[in-house]
Structure formats: C-alpha cells, structure tokens
Amino acid sequence: PGAQGADAALDRLLRLRAGEQVELHATSDPGPLWRRVRRNDSGGWGITTIEQGPPRWRVGITRRPPEPPLSPMAG
Q1: Contact status, residue 16 vs residue 45, Cβ threshold 8 Å
Q2: Angle at CA 66, nearest 5°, toward 70 and 14?
Q3: Is 34 exposed, middle or buried (CB count within 10 Å of its CB: 0-12, 13-18, 19+)?
Q4: Do residues 21 and 59 make contact, with C-beta atoms less than 8 angstroms apart?
Q5: Cα–Cα distance for residue pair 29/40, rounded to 1 Å
Q6: Of the chain's two ends, which shows fewer C-beta atoms within 10 Å, N or C?
C-alpha cells in the first residue's frame, strides 16, 4: 500500500534482466512510478499500456537489452 507498494514495485523493476518483462497492476496512475524508474536507471525500457484507468491501470514493462556499441566507420 502507498509508498511501500511503490518502493517494492520500483525495486522489482530495477532488478529486471534484459529481455524480462512484468505486467504491473495499479489502482492509481503508474506515471509517477515510471518517472522514478527512469530517474534511477534511464537504460532501455519498453512500456505498453494494456488498460488505462481509472479505476485500474495495467502496463507491460520490458527491460530491453543494451544497444551494441557503434563501430567506428572505416575511412
């Protein structure tokens, strides 16, 4: 509930490995949680809105694999 639930969700999302995904169910807009995720780790995330409340929100969140480094162009 409240801040404890948001903290637990944030912890779980930040522990996702590349390619893993979760479906988040919430009774309030998950936008503030998503902003916290991005502040803590701006790396590759995908988010898909499944149901946009009120009264219920459902979003799919995927941890994307890191982008491969760009190779220098041969000149």
Answers
A1: no
A2: 155
A3: middle
A4: no
A5: 19
A6: C
